[in-house]
Backbone:
């Protein structure tokens, strides 16, 4: 690979690089290099691949559930017999029983959130990109980093294994509300809790490592206000994980005690199970679980979205070829979001019989947190104004993120008001809302990140044509899947019903006629079929991506230099792919993160480590 | 103690002895309060917790040399304590705030 | 490039990496125990009037453990100072003390657990309650049909007696060192009762409605007691392992990189002090209030 004239200082090409260091390291063997690696880049890629596989698996569960919703009780075509053979009685005749549907629902949520998106957005991109962006040789604690991945991997394995134990995986929803989670007589919940404890431990180790890295290992000259905004989002995300996850770990320990030692932390006095008084000491509080769960659960939403916003910010700045608008506002906004995210959690609990005062408090904080979110989105939109935009695949995904996240965010407002939430709570409306935030929102941003940083990881570009096919397919079918759910939800269709509400609706209709309140019209129920086909096509639209990722490793177009996107940030100012230790010598930072199209400069970008000329005075980060 | 000053070993031992005496005294005080007659639990709980906080301050301040720690650690701990207070306070508030007209048994 | 600031502090933050790392870890630990303390507060506030136990734990054993832990915190600090001034022999001595004190703490804790484990409450068929420590039980051996008297506590199989039948034995009677009360609430606030008469109480099988030891399943106080102190004891165990490692095989680093070794002693000490700090709140909250 060639170095280019734009690079300061010029680096040695990567392929002549092995053996660098104070003392020559022996070339690590296969296990040390790929499996038990302490290099943040390898760990990032391990996280990325594992998380993508889990997301594919979670998506598969969703397809099966959509089939069951659209065609209740009818055997799943093609893979029905396989399901029956692998899972046994719960998939009798190849159809999905309500118990199995509940398992799939709980595990779809758990896998997508804790095993898919958090590891991909936070751990994978964070691991690979953050040390490079701040000019660090590695994470602060490389061995802790490896332990973090291993804990994540073990947690994931435990979750997967739970599908095959007698009784199947956890059935109490990804929120695992007690007492339901304790009274279901199968062992799935036990596996879920133990798996979660591993995943939480992994996140805590990762979070502490990220914060320490960002505070301690910034290169000389990389001041706080010169950090790329992606690093800021990772920093705030790490803090959220560090401080919000432990209460859930405490709750998980208590639920474990409830399930194993028969304590009554979350089991009230007089609890009846199946019409019989349960043999428990009682005195516990089911609401305590909900509080501890949502104390993590809501900040977790921002764990999912903030790194995605960070990726979008980098891609937009790079492809509009102008400084991101309002860098400082973005920094303060992300800090405000992180702070406020800790005091909004009980808006998930308006229906639990909270009083009006506390409901009003949480309603107010929920409205307040939308302000910094809107600031962030507004900064991105204004950044587009007047830019000479390059519409490559990462930029398409980043641009699609904006309206998709916009829809997701704005439809959240009615859920934040407790009056309208009473109607919308636990309906398909809320499914549509948070999926717009996470699926076409976060996942699009993650795709943007994969296309954007792929050349840095492999030295080759991903195929642009198939990237566009992937984008348009995903964009269209995401909306086909999720848009109808708003209408279903507003008509009162409840979530978590294994037949999509047909039974419930029929029961209401037969009693009180077709106009009954709570009955669903046929047109609402028939949307299920469209959603099913949309989801299938969405799956098909991912095939070009999967092939593209693997095919491009060997056959993609080689990058023309180490900085194929003409970017300013430090990760593009190292050899491709970066060697162990990342930089051949310590970078010295002289510029803000987004100095694009600076007037009077020969090229339209100034790398952060380009020495300021004697006549240049350093430009502020938000040069307009 | 900050890293730049040379450590005086005997001074340190003396300080440790003081801290140990302080911890033992506050512990004794807590036990004493808990056995006080003619006080309701709310008053006792408040007093005992106050003494426990003094005790914790001694340990954190001197043994963990938090009193001479860097600003960054203070900021981190301030956030942590704040969020802990939020968790405890808002949860308690939520559990104690019932809709108008709720019948309690 | 190598990772900087592994033992020297970074100028602008004034911290070396591991020190920041341990404080971040401790911050998350604060939230972990914070979640459990919140649970304690809610369970206590939410308990029905008169149903929250007082005086169930031995204050003097708790005090003993408080002093032991405080002393170990001091020796940990002195071990670090000994490293700072380069006195390795003193370091070895003080950390040997720390480890010994930590193990003593765990032994006392185990004794307390055992004391709860063999403490039974028997709901009797006449509506009264027998309560006390297990003394002996008479069984009928199912194989030989002979009565066997045992003074040994039978472990988990015996912790919850329903119908009085275990795998091999059929219960005939149980003898407790304790008392019989008519109102279960009399068992709750032991502090309020001046004189509690204890004696040997034998309950025939026919009079046992149900029988349960003071395990975490007994009520929410014991649940949170076992969970909080159990988690704390796990921290003690973990800390002891780390300190034991640094005292044992890990001390080789003293010869090669004494500064980094001293830092290791400092951060393991910070963790140890935090564990002490948790106990400073656990003791009054569980034993005194």
Residues:
């Amino acid at each position: 690979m060639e170095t280019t004239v734009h690079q300061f200082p010029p680096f040695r090409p990567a392929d002549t690089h092995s053996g660098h260091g104070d003392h020559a390291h022996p070339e690590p063997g296969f296990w040390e290099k790929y499996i038990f690696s302490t290099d943040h880049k390898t760990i990032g890629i391990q996280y990325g691949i594992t998380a993508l596989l889990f997301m594919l698996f979670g998506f598969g569960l969703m397809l099966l559930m959509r089939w069951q919703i659209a065609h209740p009780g009818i055997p799943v075509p093609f893979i029905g017999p396989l399901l029956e053979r692998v899972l046994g009685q719960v998939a009798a005749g190849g159809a999905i029983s309500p118990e199995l549907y509940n398992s799939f629902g709980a595990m779809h949520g758990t896998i997508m959130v804790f095993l898919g998106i958090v590891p991909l957005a936070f751990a994978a991109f964070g691991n690979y990109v953050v040390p490079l962006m701040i000019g660090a040789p590695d994470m602060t604690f490389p061995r802790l980093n490896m332990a973090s991945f291993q804990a994540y991997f073990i947690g994931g394995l435990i979750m997967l294994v739970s599908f095959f134990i007698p009784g199947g995986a956890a059935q109490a929803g990804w929120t695992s509300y007690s007492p339901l989670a304790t009274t279901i007589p199968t062992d799935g919940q036990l596996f879920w809790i133990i798996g979660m404890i591993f995943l939480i431990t992994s996140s805590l180790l990762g979070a502490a490592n990220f914060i320490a890295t960002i505070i301690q290992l910034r290169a000389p000259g990389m001041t706080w206000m010169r950090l790329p905004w992606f690093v800021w989002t990772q920093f705030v995300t790490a803090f959220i994980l560090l401080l919000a996850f432990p209460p859930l770990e405490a709750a998980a320990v208590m639920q474990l005690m409830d399930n194993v030692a028969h304590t009554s932390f979350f089991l009230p006095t007089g609890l009846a199970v199946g019409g019989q008084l349960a043999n428990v000491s009682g005195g516990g509080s089911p609401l305590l679980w909900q509080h501890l769960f949502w104390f993590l659960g809501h900040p977790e939403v921002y764990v999912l979205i903030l790194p995605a916003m960070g990726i979008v910010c980098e891609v937009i700045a790079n492809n509009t070829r102008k400084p991101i608008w309002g860098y400082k506002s973005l920094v303060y906004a992300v800090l405000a979001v992180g702070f406020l995210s800790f005091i909004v959690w009980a808006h998930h609990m308006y229906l639990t019989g909270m009083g009006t005062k506390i409901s009003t408090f949480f309603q107010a904080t929920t409205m307040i947190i939308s302000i910094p979110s809107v600031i962030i989105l507004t900064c991105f939109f204004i950044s587009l104004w007047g830019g000479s935009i390059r519409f490559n695949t990462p930029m398409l995904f980043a641009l699609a993120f904006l309206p998709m996240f916009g829809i997701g965010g704005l439809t959240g407002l009615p859920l934040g008001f407790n009056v309208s939430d009473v109607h919308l709570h636990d309906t398909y409306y809320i499914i549509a809302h948070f999926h717009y935030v996470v699926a076409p929102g976060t996942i699009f941003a993650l795709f943007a990140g994969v296309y954007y940083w792929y050349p840095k990881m492999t030295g080759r570009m991903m195929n642009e044509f198939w990237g566009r096919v992937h984008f348009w397919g995903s964009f269209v079918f995401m909306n086909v899947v999720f848009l109808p759910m708003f209408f279903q939800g507003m008509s009162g269709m409840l979530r978590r019903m294994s037949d999509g509400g047909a039974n419930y609706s029929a029961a209401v209709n037969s009693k009180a006629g077709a106009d009954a309140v709570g009955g669903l019209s046929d047109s609402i129920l028939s949307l299920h079929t469209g959603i099913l086909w949309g989801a299938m096509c969405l799956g098909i639209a991912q095939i070009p991506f999967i092939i593209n990722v693997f095919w491009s490793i060997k056959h993609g177009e080689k990058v023309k230099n180490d900085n194929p996107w003409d970017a300013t940030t430090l990760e593009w100012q190292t050899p491709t792919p970066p060697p162990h230790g990342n930089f051949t010598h310590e970078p010295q930072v002289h510029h803000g993160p987004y100095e694009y199209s600076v007037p009077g400069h020969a090229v339209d970008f100034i790398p952060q480590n380009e020495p300021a000329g004697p006549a240049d005075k350093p430009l502020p980060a938000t040069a307009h | 103690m900050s890293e730049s000053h040379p450590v005086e070993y005997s001074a340190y031992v003396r300080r440790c002895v003081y801290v140990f005496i302080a911890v033992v005294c506050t512990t004794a005080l807590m036990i004493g309060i808990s056995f006080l007659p003619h006080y309701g639990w709310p008053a006792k709980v408040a007093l005992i917790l106050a003494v426990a906080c003094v005790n914790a301050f001694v340990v954190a301040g001197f043994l963990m040399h938090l009193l001479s720690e860097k600003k960054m650690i203070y900021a981190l701990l301030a956030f942590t304590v704040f969020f802990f207070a939020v968790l405890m306070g808002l949860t308690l508030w939520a559990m104690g705030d019932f809709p108008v007209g709720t019948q309690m048994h | 490039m190598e990772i900087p600031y592994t033992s020297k502090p970074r100028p602008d933050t004034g911290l070396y990496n591991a020190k920041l790392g341990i404080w971040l870890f401790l911050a998350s630990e604060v939230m972990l125990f914070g979640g459990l303390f919140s649970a304690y507060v809610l369970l206590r506030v939410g308990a029905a009037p008169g149903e929250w136990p007082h005086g169930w734990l031995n204050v003097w054993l708790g005090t003993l453990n408080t002093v032991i832990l405080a002393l170990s915190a001091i020796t940990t600090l002195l071990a670090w100072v000994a490293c700072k001034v380069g006195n390795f022999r003193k370091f070895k001595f003080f950390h040997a003390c720390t480890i010994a004190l930590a193990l003593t703490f765990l032994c006392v804790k185990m004794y307390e657990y055992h004391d709860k484990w063999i403490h039974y409450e028997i709901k009797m068929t006449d509506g009264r309650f027998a309560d006390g420590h297990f003394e002996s039980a008479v069984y009928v051996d199912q194989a030989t049909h002979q009565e066997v008297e045992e003074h040994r506590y039978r472990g988990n199989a015996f912790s919850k007696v329903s119908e009085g039948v275990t795998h091999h034995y059929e219960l005939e009677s149980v003898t407790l060192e304790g008392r019989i009360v008519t109102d279960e609430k009399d068992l709750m606030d032991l502090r309020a009762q001046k004189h509690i008469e204890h004696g040997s109480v034998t309950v025939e099988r026919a009079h046992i409605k149900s029988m349960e030891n003071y395990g975490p399943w007994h009520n929410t106080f014991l649940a949170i007691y076992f969970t909080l102190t159990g988690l704390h004891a796990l921290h003690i165990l973990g800390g002891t392992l780390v300190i034991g490692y640094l005292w044992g095989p890990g001390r080789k680093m003293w010869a090669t990189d004494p500064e980094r070794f001293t830092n290791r002693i400092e951060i393991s000490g910070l963790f140890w002090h935090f564990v002490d700090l948790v106990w400073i709140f656990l003791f009054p909250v569980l034993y005194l209030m």
Summary: The interface with chain A takes residues 72, 79-80, 83, 86-87, 90-91, 93-95, 97-100, 102 of chain B (CB under 8 Å). The helical segments of chain B are 9-35, 41-63, 71-96. Residues 9-35 of chain B form the longest helix (27 residues). Chain B has three helices and no strands.
